[in-house]
Amino acid sequence: MTSAAHDLNTVLRRAVSALIGAGIEDAATDARILASAAFELSREDMLRDPAATLDPEAVDAFEKTIVRRSAHEPVSRILGKREFRSLDFEIGPATLDPRPDSETVVEAVLEYAAAMQPDLRMLDIGTGSGCLLLSALYELPAARGIGTDIDPDAVACARRNAAALGLSARAIFMETHWAKGVDGTFDVVLSNPPYIPSGDIAGLASDVARYDPAAALDGGPDGLDAYRALSAVVGPILTPSGVVVLEIGAGQAGDVQAIFASAGFGLAGTRRDIAGHDRALVFFRIAPPNG
Fold first, then answer.
1. Is the domain of 45 the same as that of 104?
2. 141 and 43: one domain?
3. Which of 40, 190, 216, 242 could form an S-S bond across to 238 if both were Cys, CB 3.0 to 4.6 Å?
4. Beta strands 238-247 and 87-90: pairing type?
């Protein structure tokens, strides 16, 4: 791409043309989102002055983002942030890119939390950016929570998100495997674990397969390894009246329910995503942790 002309109209036209040529859907929308960030202009600014003269260095930086988008890198990855439940979350190479389907987990948490004491405790296993735990805490002002992740960069990202949302006093993030070293019991245990069968990862959309961390996707040969591990972990740390809320992949509801039933859990409810798939399962304990 050339930076010969630096007025907004010309720069945007070149960008949209490049994205269309790369097979990007919604090329005009993506170009405007990236331009808004690069030039620090709101949508209204761009409509008000479409021929605005732009700083050449800012144009060069913008055109680099268009090259990245042309390679099908998600806009959220380029910007380093994603909106989730109307909140902005920093994301990075160590974290999943939060998607609307995962909002079903938060919705289920909030529904069951409504019947609990206000100062409930939550544990988010495999927290990534912290978007699930922090979204729930944002709407439950007396609740507290812990998020765990095996990746130190994910933990650092979640801590920054907590600080940005003013939730650092109520959210602790730990680098650990599952719930190892976590003290106490919890009213809500939640998780969006890896659930893609190993052999299916290469066939995922490129924005997922190339840019989401493999460890956050790979659920083992049948996609269920994480649920087996979680079913063995959550019993001792769940309060007697607590619930476990899990995101699952399409078609996994029966298998995950069977795994948790064998560990002494009953199914309390399900939540469907916008495509109509069971996406969040809610479990309660019906047997003692070792019974």
1. no
2. no
3. 242
4. unpaired
